[in-house]
Specification:
Helices cover about 55% and strands about 0% of the residues. With about 100 residues, it is an all-alpha fold. Helix 2 (about 30-40) crosses helix 5 (about 90-100) and helix 4 (about 65-75) packs across helix 5.
Amino acid sequence: MDRRVVFYRVFVLSLVLFAVGATQAGDPQRGRQIYIERCAGCHGLTGSPTMAAVPAFSRGEGVMKSDQELLAFIKRGKGVMPGYDGLLTDMEIRDTLAYIRTLF
């Protein structure tokens, strides 16, 4: 196969994957307000927790997974953390994750 054809196919595939990823990425500006309303009570305004055994987002704790893994976790909840399935849309959760990642 001609190298130009291979390059063209890889280039087009890269553009498609980038476009798909961009449409799924969250907006940290929108996520900030959701974080303040729903998360800061336990995780702190700056990502430093106000309760024991709560991940410190300011140190990257609990967020070193893919958005898809974290989205599923947030939807179902665990322990004292409630599940947000039905309370927040997937996009609102992605927005919040984008904001949380600005804290560390």
